[in-house]
Amino acid sequence: MASPADLTARSALSRLCTRCSVSLSRQSRAANGFAQTPKHQQRPLSTTSSRTRRLAPLSPLVVTNAASKHLAAGASRLSISTTSRALHEHDPFKFDPYYGNPYATPILSQDNLFHPFSSSPIRAIRERAWFIKRHSSCPHPDHAPGGSQLPKHSEFECPDCGVPLYCSKEHWADDYERHLEVCDILRQINEDDHDLHSGRYFAEFEYAGVQLDEALVNFSSWDTFLYTREFKAINSERSMRQATRILTYPITIGSILHELSPYNIKAGGRLTVEGLKSFSALRYNLHPPKNGGGPSIKDLRVRPPPVRIFVLGARAESSLPRDAWIQIAHLFPLCDIHLIFIGPEAMLNRKEKIPPRTPENPFGMVVEDQLWPGFKISTIADYYHTIHKTGYFYPYDPYFDCFVLFHPGLGHPASSHHWAETLPYLLETKAPIIVTGYTEEDMQRDINWVNEQASGEFDLLLEPGENTFRSLRWDLNDMDPLDISAGNWGVWAFRGKRYEATRKDA
Ligand SMILES: [Zn+2]
Ligand SMILES: [Zn+2]
Q1: Residue 103 within a domain
Q2: Domain end marker among 196, 211, 239
Q3: Ligand 1 centre distance from Cα of residue 116 (Å)
Q4: Closest ligand by atom to 181 CA
Q5: Which ligand number lies closest to the CA of residue 137?
Q6: How confident is the model over 127-183, as pLDDT tens digits?
Q7: Which ligand is nearest to the CA of 176?
């Protein structure tokens, strides 16, 4: 069992910016001499493999336009964008709910999910309250620079959403109108957090299997997607939020690469002409014609090389349940896919040991090749630019390769220097680069940074905008609870500019 100090440290770490948390977790390992065992390894076996690891909380199923406007307004006015990196990339693992047994009685029933954080029946949530109170500041204007009071921590919990936000009841009451803009969303976050700890059976984490040949997947929205993919157990808004929190990672990739993608070159379809060329090249291999191949000797056919999807700066996404990632294989059943997670934090939260670096495996790559026929996941805990320089994955081919960066923080002051070295190599490959952001501000900051670094050297493939397959669950930043965001909220794509031969006529 982990000691209370371990639990507190882990709970605190899981809320920090992952960049800071890496060094802290190293310190904590050094201090107690061993790495902490994730709780899910201490638990008895769960009933199916698809329930071995879970993502955390969600929020409103469908956030109405009005609510998202409030959020946007709240975010731009109240949040300090420099903290927006301190989000919940490993929340999925921090909450570590009891995944449930269909016959067990839940600890919390569905009509008993709201509890103020600091008096929650769930210890992990009380610890979260403790963390928020010590790290966030009262947003009342009196504490602003030049105001009448010095900054104070958030001690007072709003009775309606149960999140510690203000230093006192007086400041909460005085700022109530502004708080109303986000109170509903915060309450939903509160209930969704408690839901994950409720001990109920999470049927929404049963993933759909093989897609029938004759049934087309409809990518117009989460609803049509889940329906046409035959996800059967997602029948409430809360289940939808919990499920999309995980599925947003594979389906964001699938929805852009698939031939039935919701993004197109019609007006408002966001795909650019260069984007159509680029993604068509990949689709040529992702959707090959049927060739009559089969398992018997006479049906053997030459298989083209796998399409490689490089997920760079990988963190929590590398430890998502494998059944979630296999959803990509179900979307492209006729081609082989190799998913490659690369990033110094890619092995965080993973139970495998990093193999020693040898001449055959120079980067200590962890390979999982028995997940699904034709689908393989490899993980390398190193910087992409280090690997690129050695030519390990050469040659790159825009017909077979693409890059995905989930919330990379390209323009974030804490991480942009890491990306500065990577970007030129990515552009050099001419393969598409898909990028997501937590919020509009987060995404725009990345776009501005790419513009500064590589002005004129790249083509936009997908115009920035809200991601059809974003997480429907909202999260709050424990360092600043008014900084609210959703996983993969926005998405855009670009690639290194191609200079085509042109005729020089007189
Ligand atoms: Zn105050
Ligand atoms: Zn409230």
Answers
A1: no
A2: 196
A3: 19
A4: 2
A5: 1
A6: 999 999 999 999 999 999 988 999 999 999 999 999 999 999 999 999 999 999 999
A7: 2
Domain residues for 271? 248-290+304-496
pLDDT at 277 over 50: yes
How many whole angstroms from 154 Cα to the centroid of ligand 1?
A: 7
No. of helices (H) and no. of strands (E), the chain: 15, 12
**How far does residue 344's CA lie from ligand 2's centre (Å)?**
38
Nearest-ligand number for the alpha carbon of 481: 2
What's the gap in Å between 183 CA and the centre of ligand 2? 4
Tell whether the model's pLDDT for residue 464 goes beyond 70: yes
Ligand lying nearest the CA atom of residue 148:
1
Q: Where are the alpha helices (DSSP H) in 373-439?
A: 384-390, 416-429
Determine, yes or no, domain membership for 467: yes
Closest listed residue to residue 178, CA positions, set 206, 140, 125: 140
Q: Do 259 and 191 share a domain, yes or no?
A: no
> Which amino acid would we find at residue 44?
P
Quick check: is 205 in a domain?
no
Instruction: Encode pLDDT of 19-55 as tens digits.
Output: 333 333 333 333 333 333 333 333 333 333 333 333 3
> pLDDT of 124-133, one tens digit each?
999 999 999 9
Q: What percent of the chain is modeled with pLDDT above 70?
A: 78
Mapped onto helix, strand or coil, the DSSP state of residue 227 is helix
Round to whole Å and give the CA distance between 111 and 297: 58
Beta bridge mates, 271: 462
Task: Clarify whether residues 345 and 283 are in a common domain.
Answer: yes
pTM of the model: 0.79
Beta strands, E only, 82-179 = 156-157, 164-166
Residue 124 lies in a domain: yes
Answer yes or no: do 259 and 132 share one domain.
Answer: no
Q: 421 with 279, same domain? A: yes
Distance 412 CA to ligand 2 centre (A): 29
Q: How many domains does the chain have?
A: 2
Ligand closest to CA 162 = 2
